[in-house]
Amino acid sequence: MTRYVLAIDQGTTSTRCMLFDRDGRPVSQAQQEHRQIYPQPGWVEHDPLEIRDTTRALVSAALAKAGAGAKDIVAVGITNQRETAVLWEKSTGRPIHPAIVWQDTRTAELCARLAADGGQDWIRAKTGLPIATYFSAPKLQWLLEHVDGARRRAGRGELLVGTIDTWLIWNLTGGPNGGVHVTDASNASRTLLMNLATLDWDPELLDSLAIPREILPEIRSSSEIYATATGILAGVPVAGDLGDQQAALFGQTCLDVGDAKNTYGTGCFMLLNTGHAIVPSRHGLLTTVAYRLGRDRPVYALEGSVAVTGALVQWLRDNLGLIETAADVETLANTVEDNGGIYLVPAFSGLFAPYWRSDARGAIVGLTRYVHKGHFARAALEATAYQTREILDAMREETGLALNALKVDGGMVANETLMQFQADILGVPLIRPAVAETTALGVAYAAGLAVGFWKDPDELRALWRRDKEWQPNLSAETVQRLYGGWKKAVLRTFGWMDSQG
User: Fold this and answer.
1) Pairing state of beta strands 45-46 and 223-228?
2) CA torsion, points 388, 392, 394, 398, in degrees to nearest 10?
3) What pairing do the DSSP bridges indicate for beta strands 343-345 and 430-433?
């Protein structure tokens, strides 16, 4: 009988369920988008119940496509959009407010207050993170302060909080009827509340942010059996939990110090494995937990986060109507030879690494009458490549490592025009794996290791397969000119919220 690992990949814009076999090959998958809710400028929300119900339906669909049932699944792993915060009733499983998404900037004033005394980086020594709207704790603090009765109910033990992994694991394992309330160290390290050295919630930070420990999940490793599932997966161990970018690092088998990957999704996220060393950043990067396997020592990483990459393509589709599907952007971009002199800086929710400027907002610069929609498509793809270059430059400065090649994954790696331009701008080869959806694969690996489906990380390394490689071919002078224009454009976005209110 063939056995599989089931991976649930709950992302910012869609949820995907995939089954993987013993060779790490995808056997079936089902995917569906969910609503993006924008109540006010800068606010981004999701409906947790929609995500829960969509996930259940997709699990059924993926099993049906493979002709499989619970008896054929050895373990379930969950990977998720990170930093998005959900607050719900323990007794009913009803969220008391929509989930606040990682892109949301409503906590800018709160973060400014937190940074007023010690500066933006006073938390960084413990957490590896700057104070920013990106992370979970300010979102949770906002919920406790602004949802009627939330803080009082939290104090009475009536509420639970978590990122999306916690929400789904709780529901998968019984919800109000015995669901386990857990997260893993990779997700916990994105909250501004976990101490990187102890891998536990930090009492001083909880006190500073006025967040009761009782409503937080227990922090566990990324690969262990948390509980067994109920419902259609009844009896199957839930055994893997990783934040989406850490899962992609693991799926790319970047398991050695100096290995790096870049994931192209709604945002863009580059991670560099630093082994057991907690490496502080001096160049705007994040120090984060990469993964922890059972009782092994945790592995850490440096991360560069870009808020808007694939989401910019969706903006061209949904807000401007320039394309009908996301895949059309490549065809439209290839109707022109270059960007026509324009740069599109998608600081819709401020700028993440290496700037961390919540006061920035998006800008289109260099417009002339010559420019048409093809140039907009080209500029949107180039924006992803330029932002990635900024992260790679910071990592080189931080570590002194050459980073002579970069493994790439995520939905946008199917865009060959983007991949070639990315190699050109970075000046290093890009390597795409045979399984592009390495986020789902990574958490499948974590869950499979926990139950012995795979023996050890060396076995995973042997499963990695190369699909395609892109070599840089632009001259250094051309790259310098194009990248210099981008840096000028980025400067134009600074301080917009300060000047405009």
Assistant:
1) unpaired
2) 150
3) unpaired
Digit-coded pLDDT (tens) for 226-254: 999 999 999 999 999 999 999 999 999 99
Residue recorded with tokens 């970018």: 245
Indicate the pairing of strand 286-291 with strand 299-306: antiparallel
The DSSP 8-state label assigned to residue 1 in this structure reads -
Q: What angle do CA 407, 410, 413 make, to 5 degrees?
A: 70
Report the distance separating Cα 126 and Cα 194, nearest Å.
8
Please answer whether residues 241 and 78 qualify as being in contact, where contact means their C-beta atoms are separated by less than 8 angstroms: yes
Nearest Cα neighbor of 24 from 407, 434, 456, 451 is 434
Q: What percent of the chain has pLDDT over 70?
A: 99
Longest Cα–Cα distance of the chain, Å, equals: 65
On whether the CB atoms of residues 278 and 300 are closer than 8 A, the answer is: yes
Tokens 């993170």 label which residue? Answer: 129
What are the backbone dihedrals phi and psi of residue 78, each rounded to the nearest 5 degrees, phi first?
-125, 125
Question: For residue 411, which amino acid is it?
Answer: G
- From residue 129, alpha-carbon distances to 192, 394, 421 in Å are 7, 15, 31
Of the pLDDT bands very low, low, confident and very high (cuts 50, 70, 90), residue 500 is: very low
| pTM, entire model | 0.85
User: How big is the chain, counted in residues?
Assistant: 501
